[in-house]
Amino acid sequence: MRVTSFYWITPPLQTILKKRGSPITVHQQSNSDHNERSCNEGFGLYVHIPYCRRRCNYCDFAIVPIGDNGSGGDDEENTRTIGFHKMDEEYKKAILNEINLIGKSSHGNKIPLRSIYFGGGTPSLAPLSTLRDIMHALLHSESAPFQLIGIADDENERAEITIEMDPGTFDKQFLISIKDFGFNRISLGVQSFDDNILSTMGRVHRSADIYNSVNMIAEVFGEDETNYSIDLISGVPGLTLAGWTEALHKAVSLRPKPKHISVYDLQVEAGTTFGKWYADEMEEREDDKGATQLSRMSPTTSSLHPSLPSADDCAFMYRYASGYLRACNYEHYEISSYALRDQNRRPHRSKHNQIYWEIGGKWYAIGLGATSNVNGTRYSRPRALSEYVYWTKELKEDNNSNDPPWISKGSEQDSDQTAAANKDDALLDIILTRLRTKDGLDLDWIANNEEYGESYVEAIMKGVEFFVDTELVTVSPGRIKLTDPDGFLFSNNIISNIFAELDDDTD
Questions:
Q1: Using one digit for the tens of pLDDT, what is the confidence trace for 118-137?
Q2: Strand, helix or coil at 44?
Q3: What number is the average pLDDT over the span 450-475?
Q4: Residue 82: pLDDT above 90?
Q5: Which of 113, 196, 276, 476 would you call most buried, defined as having the most Cβ atoms within 10 angstroms of its Cβ?
Q6: What pLDDT is recorded for position 369?
């Protein structure tokens, strides 16, 4: 029985973090300085817009299915549209409440932002007035708490403002408007170019919508200025090896080319439609955080649904994507992320996602289920819409608190045991996120950090010893990296082994 053990199957880190704790989790992290901080100062900002036309068959994210509002003229559809706009006004009000609380906590000082990311859900389903009002409250109102940093006219230095959009959910006028609002990067939820697979996944759009969307983006933003990313999912039911190679070829053949491609292997989640369809082909296991996940066993043939690719086929898809995209001038800079190099060989990495992977990365987050990391406090908001709206009302009415809970610096009465656990949790997060990246883990920072030191480095090196011998990990002075693609492919095993050694040797 073969079981998938790929760490790279996880979604972007923002969606990983939102799963830690429910409905609200506060996690204190180490505040120690370090030498691997990005040369750019400032925060990231994530804004969650939860609307989707329907829940996809693989999705367990914090979303609100809204159907096709405003697409028809009968009474039922008009009623649905009115209901959506009423809900949207309530959600927007909750978002603006959060922004207002951030402004009060900053005491009139503008918070510098390196990036803003509107994720979902499908933010392109939000009314333009909602997106406009949120951007205005964030950056342009008299009480706006944030300001962008960087050089506006330089693509490499300017702040990155991304919005997630699904093909078929916007038109040319929508693009013109969001460009006027300040968005300069689009993340397009392609997932597949095969209409049959899109249908199996429960996606609404079809391949023709993808090409139409790219053409409109290029027309509005200009061929040379167009900056968009696409997502692709491997390992999905019905996907063959030939079908995967064709998908990658179609992705790099888009014109203009996507400057960024994210490639995720399907992770079948319990409670989703796929989790029900393929329950007999999955095995429960615990991840490094103790959470239960489903892993693939040997596939079986079903007359009801397309077969899941085997674990071996999924591994081939990952290896092929890495080799093919690197050959097409994309830098494989993170387990699931590829950045197109420009004429000067500079890659178009996601500035926002890099904040999640930095040591000491810090970001605000607003909206349903969103997770922030400010002042060493990782804080997750409620995942149910009614709970989130109620939570923001409570915070607005609470006049006794000086600071919102997501920027709490902890209590001076925290026990030594709690402080030690927080310190170790912070290091585990650093190891997990840094080993996702091409740049790897800085051992010198750990050795020279007064909270860790050489004993931690020795435990880490003991944890990777076997994987160095099998050429899944490379060691250079003061740094370890996972090899591409096989080290990335088996990163779950490698990181688990490091965690086990740290647990044994640093108690």
A1: 999 999 999 999 999 999 99
A2: strand
A3: 95
A4: no
A5: 113
A6: 94
Higher-confidence position of 68 and 362: 362
Tell the residue number behind the tokens 């709970």, with chain if given: 387
- Cis amide linkage into residue 72, ω under 30° from 0: no
Of all residues in the chain, what percent are helix, strand and coil, respectively (each to 5)?
Answer: 40, 20, 40
The residue among 25, 7, 11 whose CA lies nearest residue 365 is 25
Q: Name residue 442's beta-bridge partners.
A: 479
Residue 144: closest CA among 174, 113, 108: 108
* Three-class DSSP labels, 70-102: CCCCCHHHHHHHHHHHHHHHHHHHHHHHHHHHH
| Averaged pLDDT, 351-365 | 94
Please report how many Cα atoms fall inside a 13 Å half-sphere around the Cα of residue 221, on the Cβ side. 23
Q: Is the peptide bond before 256 cis (omega within 30 degrees of 0)?
A: yes
The secondary structure of 456-475 as a DSSP string is: HHHHHHHHHHHHHHTTSEEE
pLDDT confidence of residue 71: 44
- Helix crossing, 207-221 with 172-181: angle to 10°? 50
CB neighbour list of residue 133: distance below 8 Å, 6 or more residues apart: 92, 96
Question: Residue 422's pLDDT band (boundaries 50, 70, 90)?
Answer: confident
Task: Report the alpha-carbon distance of residue 387 to residue 60 in Å, rounded.
Answer: 17
pLDDT at 317 over 80: yes
**Residue-level length of the chain:** 507
Burial 353-392 (b: 16+ CB within 10 A, else e): bbbbbbbbbbbbbbbbbbbbbbbbbbbbbbbebebbbebb
How much is the CA Rg of the chain, to the nearest whole Å?
A: 22
